[in-house]
Design brief:
The structure is a homodimer of 330-residue chains. The first copy, chain A, has a six-stranded parallel sheet with strand order 2-1-3-4-5-11, with helices on both faces. A six-stranded mixed sheet of chain A has the order 7-6-8-9-10-12, sandwiched between helices. Chain A contains twelve helices and twelve strands. Chain A is elongated, with a radius of gyration of 25 Å. In chain A, helix 1 crosses helix 2, helix 1 crosses helix 3 and helix 10 packs across helix 11. By secondary structure, chain A is an alpha/beta fold. Helices cover 44% and strands 17% of the residues of chain A. The N and C termini of chain A lie far apart (73 Å). In chain A, helix 11 links the parallel strand 8 and strand 9. The first copy, chain A, has three domains: 53 residues, 434 Repressor (Amino-terminal Domain); 127 residues, Rossmann fold, CATH 3.40.50; 127 residues, Response regulator (Rossmann fold, 3-Layer(aba) Sandwich). At the A-B interface, helix 4, helix 5, strand 2, helix 6 and helix 11 of A face helix 4, helix 5, strand 2, helix 6 and helix 11 of B. Chain A binds a DNA duplex (30 and 30 nucleotides) through helix 2 and helix 4.
Chain lengths: 330, 330
DNA sequence: GAAATGCGTGAAACCGGTTGCAACACGGCG
DNA sequence: CGCCGTGTTGCAACCGGTTTCACGCATTTC
């Protein structure tokens, strides 16, 4: 079927070893042999079988890309960048969708079966021992966009969520909103907790309360805001733990006849592409997603190349993106 | 490092063959041997190495999932479903992002290197000979959500885009819009051409003209609609070849002071999740994405299991989803 | 009771590569 | 001329599995 090492060796009139060495960087081959092999390989259209070589080298160049956020459009941007960055690094993303409850264990087995070189976990709401399980299996793991309290010894790349909470509270207060509240994502997400902590800290007496949604989804933001408008607590401005939630909340607020940003202010988090669309124009806190992805891939590469080392935590700063859902600073 | 077949064999006191057969369905093993092997495997935590077995079986259970639509949120829904469907079928998605020009060839080599069992191409704007290249390499290929004119012999699962064009024109005319136009996606996309063909056919004398955008993106829809409002052709209603484009167009129309759906009607295509958000409420034509994905995966499974067969084309019907960007039928 | 049938088993070859090792060629040196 | 070091090469073992094959054994059949 496919062209093998053997075929190339036969055609070039050399041994298998010679061919193998031609395609191994840093191996000792004479210029003459290399030329012959390369010519034969080109003529036959030979491509080394990564999987076969992985048997002896122990490297598959496969990286598990694990997530359970397949409904938040923000993650498409994340996947886009991850796949591109991995491809540039010569690594291949094996995508794992943790949609259902039982998927976690099975995925772990699966990634082991394919002997992936490393795992990137992109999510803030995974079962807490999931990341740890990889780590325990001896696989390099980097957790991006969130973290597990139960896996303090894994690499982590993320924004500083407490600082994001600070920035949010300061921003809302600066704009002259009196009572300010927090409308977070799922309660169990580490990011939600951290953002709330930072926000409440800085809001002080102006803190009007917090509510969590069931998911990072428009409907969740809309319904929770509806309930909030009906039952309270009331606030003049809300910091939402995610842009999609913020957009849902916006929709509910306008439906109820309130004006944004005059009556109510809304501040999102992420700066997903849609936040910039003119008919949404969400003021939001931007995650430096390019840097997060680049750092994550760099860490995975380093772990693969250099073996185990003490875990690294990298917290990146956020910035405010001014649009139209918050009053101008007075 | 990892537990191997050999380890299990030693512990169970049997040969490698016996262990291998225990994990091969339909192989001949006595109940007693099977029990012993299973116990040993469980005790050791053994999982067969798929990659090693792929050497002899020729099956990796890896499926290339190739796309270049990583900026259209609609595709996150598609990836979500594909990954879930593949996982349920015991297959693993190796994600390939064709963002850059040179990626196509390299990806082809790459997928061969990993000896994937099959390839799913999810896009309508790929270089036309890309799909054909897979086919020529002897790999099962299914093209979903579009097709290549140069690869008439590959499996195809898609909506009937000409019929979608018919439906669009009929719908707009029924709602009493006089002059109707088409605002399509990228001109080179097969889907754009087919939708236009169907639309123009049925619009007849009411056809006001067509314009293509540079990408499936909000900004493209917005900018093209701005230009259209400025330079014409003028139309009372537009059929947009994609929801994101439609949403961009909506934004431009409202910015220009026109009312939707009174002055101008907008009809999208896809029914992505955001189209249903109350603050967007886009009337659109729904692609039966669940069926497309299910059929695609079923075809890949069949191709892998049964080998080459004549190519299959499956065209699924679309339905109209009523929301708020088109007048009610009179 | 002997021969035919069948299943279950292990040894060994093989899948497509990599790599340790020993053999070898070559040039430079004393 | 002999010795040595360097650089190149092929052989063979190995990675972790699968599969062919022949054989042993128990069961069935005449």
């Amino acid at each position: 079927m496919a062209v093998t090492l053997q075929d190339v060796a036969a055609r070039a009139g050399v041994s298998k070893s010679a061919v193998s060495r031609t395609f191994t960087v840093g191996a000792s081959v004479s210029a003459r042999t290399r030329a012959r092999v390369e010519e034969a390989a080109a003529a036959l259209g030979y491509h080394p079988n990564v999987l076969a070589s992985s048997l002896t080298t122990g490297r598959t160049k496969l990286v598990g890309l694990v997530s359970n956020n397949f409904s938040n459009p923000y993650f498409l941007e994340i996947f886009d960048r991850f796949t591109q960055a991995l491809q540039s690094a010569g690594l291949r993303p094996l995508l794992v969708n943790l949609a259902h409850a039982g998927d976690a264990e099975r995925s772990l087995d699966m990634l082991r079966q394919y002997s992936v070189d490393g795992v990137i976990v992109a999510s803030s709401t995974l079962p807490p021992d999931f990341t740890a399980a990889f780590r325990q299996a001896g696989l390099p793991v980097v957790h991006a966009f969130g973290w597990s309290r139960n896996a303090p010894d894994t690499d982590l790349v993320s924004i500083d969520n407490v600082a994001a909470g600070h920035l949010a509270a300061e921003t809302l207060l600066t704009r002259g909103y009196g009572r300010i509240g927090f409308l977070g994502g799922p309660e169990e997400a580490s990011t939600t907790q951290d953002r709330l902590t930072g926000f409440r800290d800085r809001a002080g007496a102006a803190f009007a309360g917090a509510r969590c949604t069931s998911a990072y989804a428009f409907a969740a933001g809309r319904d929770t805001m509806r309930a909030l408008l009906h039952d309270g607590p009331v606030a003049e401005a809300w910091f939402c733990g995610d842009d999609v939630i913020a957009i849902g909340a916006l929709s509910a607020i306008r439906d109820a006849g309130h004006r944004v940003p005059g009556d109510v202010g809304i501040l999102g988090l992420n700066d997903m592409e849609m936040a910039g669309w003119e008919n949404i124009a969400l003021t939001t806190i931007r995650q430096p997603i390019a840097e997060i992805v680049a750092d994550t891939v760099a860490l995975i590469e380093a772990s693969i190349a250099e073996g185990p080392r003490p875990p690294v935590t990298r917290m990146l700063p956020c910035t405010l993106v001014e649009r139209a859902t918050l009053r101008e600073p007075s």
